[in-house]
Amino acid sequence: MAVLDSGASRLRRQLESGGFEARLYVKQLSQQSDGDRDLQEHRQHIQALAEETAQNLKRNVYQNYRQFIETAREISYLESEMYQLSHLLTEQKSSLESIPLTLLPAAAAAGAAAASAGEESGAGSGGRDHFRGPTGFFSSPGAVSRDSSGPAEEGKQRTLTTLLEKVEGCRHLLETPGQYLVYNGDLVEYEADHMAQLQRVHGFLMNDCLLVATWLPQRRGMYRYNALYPLDGLAVVNVKDNPPMKDMFKLLMFPESRIFQAENAKIKREWLEVLEETKRALSEKRRRQQEEEAAPRGPPQVTSKTTNPFEDEEEEEPAAPEVEEEKVDLSMEWIQELPEDLDVCIAQRDFEGAVDLLDKLNHYLDNKPSPPPVKELRAKVDERVRQLTEVLVFELSPDRSLRGGPKATRRAVSQLIRLGQCTKACELFLRNRAAAVHTAIRQLRIEGATLLYIHKLCHVFFTSLLETAREFETDFASTDSGCYSAFVVWARSAMGMFVDAFSKQVFDSKESLSTAAECVKVAKEHCQQLGDIGLDLTFIINALLVKDIQGALHSYKEIIIEATKHRNSEEMWRRMNLMTPEALGKLKEEMKSCGVSDFEQYTGDDCWVNLSYTVVAFTKQTMSFLEEALKLYFPELHMVLLESLVEIILVAVQHVDYSLRCEQDREKKAFIRKNASFLYETVLPVVEKRFEEGVGKPAKQLQDLRNASRLIRVNPESTTSVV
């Protein structure tokens, strides 16, 4: 281990040196390496250094990210205040310069009268008048206006109602008590990515939200409701001018953002100022409400018990003692900053930190009452939980990169489980893995050799299934058992996907029975590996393959029957002459592999065999069919295999019986009897024994066929088979 560490440190120093040249380094490395193994080790070292460097870079980038956000926020506040201060000083300077010192008292009186008159007419004035805001005077050219702070609530509500009557689909806004219009104006929206102009909009800034409405070209002066954003979840960012793109600002509402352009720099500055002022006023208002509600109240007044002697004591019900509601302290700094901290964690993809904050809050509020401040805090936190859940769901969506295997999903799955979304986490995890398995199967190259492709297919699929099962057991070990049933259902669905690809390559391409048997054997061997984790899917793969295997057995059975009938039609009932001892020895080995151990008694002098070519070929083909079929065997195929064997054997038996009845030549008839004896007394017992060994139980149909096929003396003139 020390040698590896020293080698890694030496490699790091070499890569960090100022005169490092990659081409020269690779050349020297190739000359010094003994072989592929050294190059692989160097590659692993370099990859480890690259990953370590990436992690360090990421850690350095995000280390002070939160401080950066807080600093940017404070700078924004300071910039807004400086704007306001500069504006006020400019107005004061211009006012002082325009009024002579000798006329100052009279001008002051006249100015007061004019101000009062302006306030009386300000509520109904149009967008071209000047309105007094909370911090100064604003001139609003065009359609931009700022509501006065002087009118009463009725005037504010009347102004809001008048303006919003021009907006379709926003009547529900008037249901909020205490809501009034602060600022409004025309804007142009641009696309965030390509900075292309999208549409003209009109913004209505209320004291607690921002409404965006689109223009209706066919109805002048009317708008259609587009979006509504609460101010507590809205962030305003000043966009630097980059001609021709200027006078723009960005609104951030997780998980989206929108860019708007004002008519000029002055209106843009007003939008930025009034948005910050309104957000600050709303935050201050809610903070005061929380302090008032959290402040201790005086003890409740207890009325003295009445002394009326005429009251009925039995009917009198004792009043329940008034219990003072327990107060919840929400003034702690971490609680006040919790919504913003959650936004930062979500933006930084620090899912664990966000869930830790939620757990901390839930633990703090556990078994405590829920006064309005707590409910309001809960509402804010619930909105962040919804946003966090959406991000985690997106992390597990199949649209994301499927690289990294099932372990890549562990982070999002574990946080969803901690959020109480166990069912959703299970569903998304399995959906993600299904997409990964499907993609892996589709990316396999179809080789010319079917067996080679099946080996690769089984390796990819069952390895993915095994990894998914282990990761599932790790992630959902602490949950209820309902998720495990969902995994079994998913595994069956995934097995169906595998069988579709398997059958398309093996059975649809009309491969030979021996190739199909080898492929099925490989698939079952891989499937049995899942038993190491307690997952047995053999019965599922059998159930999904049964129709294809039945079709293959039926097809190969028909091929054997057709070949046997063709040979029977050309049968001359002559002995086989193999011509060479090598050919005879090869035939003996083949018959021995078929289970016919006493084949020597059927061989004659030189290279002659005292059997017909038809019977020998039938024996080899039947035993080959039986061996390959037993590789495919499972209980559901018992009757299919048995019936196929009976049909194949009946073709040979009926031909021998028919030839025995029709043949008149004594020598040929004796030869036919010898072939029949070989067929009945040697081949059929071997078939019956091998079937019983492969299946595990005797086949009564084969026994009945052998017993019924004994040579029977019948009328020589008859040409009808009795079998």
From TrEMBL:
Composition skew (Acidic residues), residue ranges: 310-327
Region annotated Disordered, chain positions: 118-158, 283-328
Main location class: other
Record localization: Cell projection, Growth cone; Cytoplasm, Perinuclear region
Keywords: Exocytosis, Protein transport, Transport
PROSITE patterns in alphabetical order: PH_DOMAIN (PS50003)
Keyword ATP-binding: no
Signal peptide positions on this chain: none
Biased composition (Basic and acidic residues): 283-295
Pfam families in the cross-refs: Exo84_C, VPS51_Exo84_N
Domain called PH: residue spans: 180-280
InterPro entries: Cullin_repeat-like_dom_sf (IPR016159), Exo84 (IPR033961), Exo84_C (IPR032403), Exo84_C_1 (IPR042561), Exo84_C_2 (IPR042560), PH-like_dom_sf (IPR011993), PH_domain (IPR001849)
Family statement drawn from the similarity comment of this UniProt entry: Belongs to the EXO84 family.
Function, in words: Component of the exocyst complex involved in the docking of exocytic vesicles with fusion sites on the plasma membrane.
Protein name: Exocyst complex component 8
